[in-house]
Write a structure and sequence with these properties.
seven-stranded antiparallel sheet; single chain; Alpha-D-Glucose-1,6-Bisphosphate, Chain A, domain 4; 3 helices; alpha+beta
Length: about 170
């Protein structure tokens, strides 16, 4: 069966993708993903992130308040619309469904692969999308790739070595 897709269906949205292998289990990687307050540590385009619901664990329906440097409003509210423990965490913008932040973890033997997809609105048709690519897109794509490298460092960090031990 053929799937017909409209070439203009993604018009108005700017998707960015990144993925990286990490030397940790899916559980360890997913635990770091669920620590919303630590997102600005490894996602450099975020200034702050917090759960709006307080101390409750993250799950479907949880609201996350994010201050970012993404195009658009400075502070955005996201809602968790998909949550599968140790596998998938997806957030959608509360006021704009064109804003989406997806995290997915593939379990491999002793390693895992982390996939991140960031989608945000690009207004004013094809010309606006092209201008957004020049103004923000390349910088955000590079920041997303660097963010995964930081995530890898945080997840793989072991405090067993004598060089890094506290005095």
């Amino acid at each position: 069966m053929a799937i017909v897709s409209d070439p203009d269906a993604n018009l108005g949205r700017r998707p960015l993708y990144a993925s990286l292998d990490v030397d940790s289990t899916a559980e360890e990687a997913f635990a770091l993903l669920c620590a919303v307050e630590k997102w600005p540590v490894w996602l450099s385009f975020l200034r702050s992130a917090r759960l709006a619901t307080g101390d409750t664990p993250i799950g479907v329906g949880s609201e996350v308040v994010v201050r970012s440097s993404l195009p658009g409003e400075e502070e955005q509210l996201y809602e968790v619309d998909a949550f599968m423990s140790n596998y998938h965490l997806s957030l959608v913008g509360a006021y704009s469904v064109r804003r989406r932040l997806d995290f997915r973890i593939e379990r491999r033997t002793t390693r895992s692969r982390v996939h991140v997809r960031l989608t945000y609105p690009a207004y004013h048709g094809r010309l606006g999308a092209l201008m957004d690519t020049w103004r923000h897109g390349r910088r955000l794509a590079a920041a997303l790739n660097e963010a995964l490298v930081h995530f890898k460092g945080l997840v793989e960090y072991r405090r067993d070595g004598a060089v890094l031990a506290d005095l």
